[in-house]
Amino acid sequence: MENNLNSANSAFSNGKGPLSTTSKALVNQMGICRICLEETDIKNLLSPCNCKGTAAYVHQICLEIWLKTSRVKTCETCKGEYEKVNKGLKPLMQLSLPRPTSDRWEDGADFYCTVLWIFLVGNVSSFWIRKGVFAFNTSLLSALNSRRLVMLWWFSFSVNCFYYFDIACQIYRRWIDDNSNFEWKANKHNIS
């Protein structure tokens, strides 16, 4: 019995006991990025969602590329939302121009139609300011030769205003996302 105690004491004093390996593991904790599968120091990884264990950690750059590619804002495993803290816009020389919300041709067409629609609304608004709404209605009536067509024009103009305003807001939100500096908010329960 005493031999066992002496061997245990010598193991702990030599740094070969279970406590020393645990403390070494805490000092040099390694984690694996679930996107690129590279093993790295846990300090270089973040845990942006509610996943636990080996699936909890990712490199910041891997997460950013994944989110730009997939355009998803939630984790596909735990369904937790990725949270980021906005740190303001990038410097003026690093800002990019607005662009369509995705690479689909429909979104590209919506983008260019929205730009044209903004110019049309600007022209109509400037006509209203200079001549008044009544003069605009009179010129519409003389051009279309029917009160029903004028009513149809106003209805379609209103519907298009709502639609293209929504598209313009989506383009603006994407432009802000693309041109903002931000930090990912890490979940505290996963960080050791």
How would you describe the overall organization of this protein?
The protein is mainly alpha-helical. It has two domains: 2-82, Zinc/RING finger domain, C3HC4 (zinc finger) (Herpes Virus-1), CATH 3.30.40; 105-178, no CATH class. Helices cover 54% and strands 9% of the residues. It has six helices and four strands; from the N terminus they run H-H-E-E-H-E-H-H-H-E. A hairpin with a 6-residue loop joins strand 1 and strand 2. Helix 4 (105-131) packs across helix 5 and helix 4 packs across helix 6 (147-178). The relative contact order is 0.13. The model is unreliable at 1-27 (pLDDT under 50). This is RING-variant domain-containing protein. One of its GO terms (cellular component) is membrane. Keywords: Membrane, Metal-binding, Transferase, Transmembrane, Transmembrane helix, Ubl conjugation pathway, Zinc, Zinc-finger.
Summarize the structure.
This protein has two domains: 2-82, Herpes Virus-1, CATH 3.30.40.10; 105-178, no CATH class. The protein is 54% helix and 9% strand.
- The share of residues in extended strands comes to 5-15%
Structural class: mainly alpha
N- and C-termini, Cα separation:
37 Å
CATH superfamily of the largest domain: Zinc/RING finger domain, C3HC4 (zinc finger)
H/E series, N to C?
A: HHEEHEHHHE
The main β sheet shows up as: 2 strands, antiparallel
How would you name the oligomeric state of the polypeptide chains in this document?
single chain
CATH T-level fold name of the largest domain: Herpes Virus-1
GO molecular function: ubiquitin-protein transferase activity; zinc ion binding
InterPro entries: Znf_RING-CH, Znf_RING/FYVE/PHD
Transmembrane segments: 109-129, 149-165
Main location: membrane
